Amino acid sequence: MKAASFLHGSCAAWENGAVLLTGLSGSGKSDLLLRLVDAGFDLVADDQVVISPTTHAEYIASPPPTLAGLIEVRGLGILRLPYREAIPLRLHVALDFSPQTPRLPPETRHEQTGVWSLTLDPRRAGAVAIIRAALRCASGTYELMTGIDGDTIICHPFSSRPQSG
């Protein structure tokens, strides 16, 4: 089994799944994390995330002990909040300001963890809702009917390959 690793990013939890936010320095990871927390998500980690493999072919996200419960809020300071210590990683979001994000993106997996990966402009007003909807797909509450490669399909992106429909 692989060893735990540290990733530069931020992480929030919704119910029983976590989203890992990555992007360049200054791309808005902490700002989007604060909006997620403000919308009811739980803080997992800000700035660095520990990713630990399990024996069940999934990864657990947690904060490094020295940063647990801390989040940077630009223009305000560093806040201490309640946080989740360990939660299964279900989604990766790569933050990108490019206006070229496809409407029906191809299936993409996060290279290090294998979880479904989306590219998202963190400035979009609907960014929090898109992340919550993707996590609801992961839990089976929602079905992704189109989007992966633009075909009409029912997709379970977090647990299996797309099924023709």
TrEMBL record:
GO biological process: regulation of carbohydrate metabolic process
Lineage: Bacteria, Pseudomonadati, Pseudomonadota, Alphaproteobacteria, Acetobacterales
InterPro entries: Hpr_kin/Pase_C, P-loop_NTPase
HPr kinase/phosphorylase C-terminal domain location: 6-80
GO molecular function: ATP binding; phosphorelay sensor kinase activity
Source domain of life: Bacteria
The protein's name: HPr kinase/phosphorylase C-terminal domain-containing protein
